[in-house]
Each structure stands twice: as C-alpha cells, then as structure tokens.
From TrEMBL:
Belongs to the thioredoxin family. DsbA subfamily. The keyword Transmembrane applies. The chain crosses the membrane at residues 6-25. This is DsbA family protein. Residues 51-208 form the Thioredoxin-like fold domain. It comes from the Bacteria. Signal peptide: none annotated. InterPro entries: Thioredoxin-like_fold (IPR012336), Thioredoxin-like_sf (IPR036249). The lineage of its organism: Bacteria, Pseudomonadati, Campylobacterota, Epsilonproteobacteria, Campylobacterales. Keywords: Disulfide bond, Membrane, Oxidoreductase, Redox-active center, Signal, Transmembrane, Transmembrane helix.
C-alpha cells in the first residue's frame, strides 16, 4: 500500500511539473510575440498579399496552406469577416507550405495577381481542393481545368505567368517568420499581433471586434 502511494505521488509530481513547464513555455512565447510590432515583420512583409481599407488599423494576419483542408473550411469564416469589416481591417495572407503541392498552388495564386484575380482564384482553389488534392492521389494539373470556370480569368495567361513566377523566396521568408511566431499549422491567425486561440466563427469575430471597438 505504501509503495502504491509513493508511485501515485511520484506520477502526480511528474505530471504537475510537465504542466508547469508547458504553461511557462506558452507564457514565455506569448510574451515574446506581444513585444513584436504587429504592423511590421515578422507579421507583415512587403510581398504579403493585403486586402481591405484598414480605416481602424486592425491587421488580421492569416498563415495559410492552399492544400490544407482546415484552411479551406475556415476560409468561409475569414471571408465573412472580410465582408463585414473590409473598410476597417487589413487582411494579410502569409504562406506555410506543408503539403506536396502547396507550392504549386501558391505559384498559381501569385501568378493570378497579374490579372488582379487573387481572391477569385483562392476561392476556386479551396472549392475544388477535393479534386486536385486528394490524399495519395494529388493531381494539381487538374486545377487548370477547374479555374476555367472563374469569370473573367484568362487561364492561358495565368499558365504563362505561372511559368515565370518563382515563389521560393517568399515561401522561405514566410516559413522563417512562421517559426519565429510559433506557427506550427494552418490556418493560424493573428489580430494586431494577438494569436487567435480557437478556430471558430465567434472567437475570430470577438477578437477582431475587441480591437475595433476598444
């Protein structure tokens, strides 16, 4: 009986110490990030895609991966936020390529800027993700056919621009910044430097509105 008590107390002490270490690490990381300016690197870079009038100086920075299923699902929430507050916020897109064809899709996105069609192409990439990015059967070339249904998009020009678009540098910088900010997966969002803790509609709106109406 005495031995069981010793074992139980030992396990309790080890678990408590582990939880304390995790808490301390999270607090230290959060404190370090809070000291960074949310209007500059590593949150925002010159090459970062930006949307919104930002009349109230609220920066919503989202790390995405075009091949990430969670990003596709949460995209509807981010779009709704943008529709509601596009005059007051600036939405900033950063990349974290964690899948086989992520860089292919990022090249398509960056090439689409030449036609000012970034948002429409991103919508289509997420909408058709199940077709071109099936697990263990990825066929990114199918994306070209799907993009033909995007109104006003010249797919042949997009293909030509794609061939001349190199995203290695921006992907590398974004990954380095993600590491500095403790971003491990996508989507990950920061609002004026504060990390969104839970990917829900309400949590995102609450965090943004806390900055807009403080």
């Amino acid at each position: 009986m005495k031995n069981k008590s010793v074992v139980f107390i030992s396990i309790f002490v080890i678990v408590a110490a582990f939880i304390a270490m995790v808490f301390f690490y999270q607090q230290k990381t959060t404190s370090s990030i809070e000291k960074l300016s949310h209007t500059d690197a590593p949150f925002i870079r010159d090459h970062s895609t930006k949307f919104g009038d930002n009349k109230k100086g609220v920066y919503v920075v989202e790390f995405i991966d075009p091949e990430c299923e969670s990003c596709a699902l949460y995209h509807k929430v981010v779009k709704e936020l943008y529709r509601t507050y596009y005059e007051d916020i600036q939405l900033v897109v950063r990349y974290l390529d964690n899948h086989t064809n992520s860089k292919f899709a990022i090249r398509v996105l960056e090439a689409s800027k030449n036609q000012n069609m970034y948002q429409a192409v991103l919508d289509k990439i997420y909408e058709t993700q199940r077709i071109w990015a099936q697990h263990n059967n990825e066929k990114p070339e199918l994306l070209w056919e799907e993009l033909k249904s995007v109104p006003s998009l010249d797919v042949e020009k997009l293909k030509a621009d794609f061939e001349n678009t190199n995203v290695d540098k921006i992907v590398k910088i974004d990954r380095e910044d993600a590491t500095k900010l403790g971003v491990r997966g996508t989507p990950t969002l920061f609002v004026n430097g504060e990390k969104l803790q839970r990917l829900s509609y309400q949590d995102l709106f609450d965090l943004v509105e806390s900055k807009l109406f403080k």
